[in-house]
Amino acid sequence: xxxxxxxxxxxxxxxxxxxxxxxxxxxxxxxxxxxxxxxxxxxxxxxxxxxxxxxxxxxxxxxxxxxxxxxxxxxxxxxxxxxxxxxxxxxxxxxxxxxxxxxxxxxxxxxxxxxxxxxxxxxxxxxxxxxxxxxxxxxxxxxxxxxxxxxxxxxxxxxxxxxxxxxxxxxxxxxxxxxxxxxxxxxxxxxxxxxxxxxxxxxxxxxxxxxxxxxxxxxxxxxxxxxxxxxxxxxxxxxxxxxxxxxxxxxxxxxxxxxxxxxxxxxxxxxxxxxxxxxxxxxxxxxxxxxxxxxxxxxxxxxxxxxxxxxxxxxxxxxxxxxxxxxxxxxxxxxxxxxxxxxxxxxxxxxxxxxxxxxxxxxxxxxxxxxxxxxxxxxxxxxxxxxxxxxxxxxxxxxxxxxxxxxxxxxxxxxxxxxxxxxxxxxxxxxxxxxxxxxxxxxxxxxxxxxxxxxxxxxxxxxxxxxxxxxxxxxxxxxxxxxxxxxxxxxxxxxxxxxxxxxxxxxxxxxxxxxxxxxxxxxxxxxxxxxxxxxxxxxxxxxxxxxxxxxxxxxxxxxxxxxxxxxxxxxxxxxxxxxxxxxxxxxxxxxxxxxxxxxxxxxxxxxxxxxxxxxxxxxxxxxxxxxxxxxxxxxxxxxxxxxxxxxxxxxxxxxxxxxxxxxxxxxxxxxxxxxxxxxxxxxxxxxxxxxxxxxxxxxxxxxxxxxxxxx
Length: 711
Description:
Butyryl-CoA Dehydrogenase, subunit A, domain 2, nine-stranded mixed β-sheet, 3 domains, alpha+beta, about 10% strand, Butyryl-Coa Dehydrogenase, subunit A, domain 1, 24 helices, single chain, two-stranded antiparallel sheet
C-alpha cells in the first residue's frame, strides 16, 4: 500500500480573535499622513514625472491580475519551482508585451514592478546592450534582431572562476586563424571557466564571451595579445536545446539569492574525438575537466563584435579601437544603471521600515504617555525613539541623494554615447571612472540599508513575510582636487548652507589624495601597504570638475586615488545643486523645504559617519563635530512628522514591496497571520514516534482522508 500523508484543513483564526488590540495600524498611518507639511503626490510627480507615473498606473493592474505574475506563493516554493515560475513569468511577459504593444520603457517599468530576477535578465540587459553598442550593421542583423524577437536567448559571460573585476586578467583566449577565417576560443584551465553567468545554466543558447584576443600580426607572424574583446558564441541547439560540441555548461547550484536565475558556468573547449573513441555520452561528460587533451571551439570571423576594433579577415591584422576601454561600454552602462537603481532599493527599504515602525508599539513613555482615545496609556510607536530614527531615516535621505546623482550619471552617459558616435571619446574615461566609484559606494550603501531596516523591524524582519530578508539576498549580488587647499573656519550657522557641505567634502577628498601621495612619495610606502588608503580613495574625480579643469595625461596617476571620498562628494554635490538651482523644485516651496531638510540630514549624517577623516584633515574641530552631531539629532526630530509622507512620495506599491510589514494601509498583523496560514507545513501531521520510520501521519483506514486520496 502506498503511503499517503494526511492533509489537514487550513488553519482558521476564531472570528472573535481576528482583530488586533488597540489602535489599528490603518488608523495609525492615517494619523501619520495627516502630519504632512507638503503634498506627497507633488513630490512623487517631481521625482518620476507624469509620463512615468502614467505608465505605472497603466501597467500595474495588468501584472496584479495575471496569474503568471503572482507573488503570493513564491516563498513556499523550492528552488526548482522558483526557477520554473521565473521562466513562466519571463515567457508570459514577452507575450503580454506583444499583445499590448508595450515599448521599451513599458517593459522596463514592468520589470521594476515585478522585481523577480529570472532567466532572461541578462538577455534583456547586458546581452542586448552589448549587441546594440558594439556591433556592425551586419552583426545587428545576424544577432541583435533575432535577440529582440526572442528567437535567440543570450547572456553575458565575462566573470571567470578565477577572475572578476580584473578584466585584463581574464584567461579565456580567442586566437584568430586567417587560413580558416575563424577565431579559436579556449579555456586554458579550470580557473578560466566562465562563472556566475546569469541565464547560462539552463536557458541561454548564445553568449557574449569576453576573451583575450590574439592576432597573428606580430614580427614574423607571431601572435600578439590585444586585450579582452567580446565574441558571440553559440552554446545550445536552438531546436533541441542540447549543448553544442565544445561547450561544457552547468548551473552553479543554490545561491543566497536569485533563486529564479540559472547562474551558470562555461568551458569553451572540446576533445579531439578523432584521437579517442568515447564509449558513451556519459563517459565524455565525465572526462570534460581533463583539460590536457583539448581541441578548440571555432567561431566565424563575423562573431567578433567589430563596431570599434577590427581584425582583417584575410591577414589577421588588428585595427586598434579609438579608445582601449570601448569594450567596457556595457559594464559602464550597467554601473550607471546600478546607481539609479540604488535610489529605489533605499526608498523601498525605508518604506517598509518607516511604515512598520509607525505601527509597531514598544513600551509606554511615563513622562509623555500616548493615549488611545482617552483610555489607559498606550505603548509608544517605535518610530518615536531617536535611536530607531537614526537607523531608518538615513536610507530615506540617501534615496534622494542617489536619485539626483543617478539622473546626472545617465545624462553624462547619454552625452558620452552621442559624443562617441561622432568620434569624440574625451568623456569616456570620466563616465567609466565615475560609474565605477559610485557603483561601489551606492551598492554598499543600499545593501547596508536593507539590512539595517530589516533589523529595525525586530523579530518580524526575520520573516520572509517582511519582504526585506529576501530582498537583501536578491540585491546583494550588486555589492559586488587641490591638495594645497586650506581649511576655512566654519560656524554652526553654516550647517544650513549647502555650499558648506560641498566645500567640506571637496576638502576631505583633496586631503586624502595628498595624504596617500605623501605616503607613497615621501615615506616610500609600498603600494601593497597603501591598499586600504587606495580603497577609500580611488578612481573617481567628479566629471563636473574634470570638465571644468582638464588635466594632462601626466596627472592621470594622481586621479587613481580617493574613490569613496570623491563619490560621496559627488552625491552631496548633485543633491546640493538640485536644492540650489532646480527650478521645478524651487517652484514648490513646501516640497523644497522638506527636501532641504533631507539634504541637510544626508550631508550631516555622512559627515558624522566619516568624522575621523574630516577631523584629521583639519576641516572640522572637535567642537564643530559636537555641533554637527547635535544638528543630526535636531534634523531627525524635524523629519519625524514627515517620514511616512516622504516614503509615500516614493510610490512603492504593495505589489512591489510584497511585504506584510510595509503595507500602504498599515494592516500589518492580520497580514502576518495570513502569511503563516499559507505555510504548506500547516497542512501536514508529523509522526514523532521514534520507533516508527514514517515521518508523516497517514490516514486511518476508512477515514475521509483515505477516501479522498483514493479518488
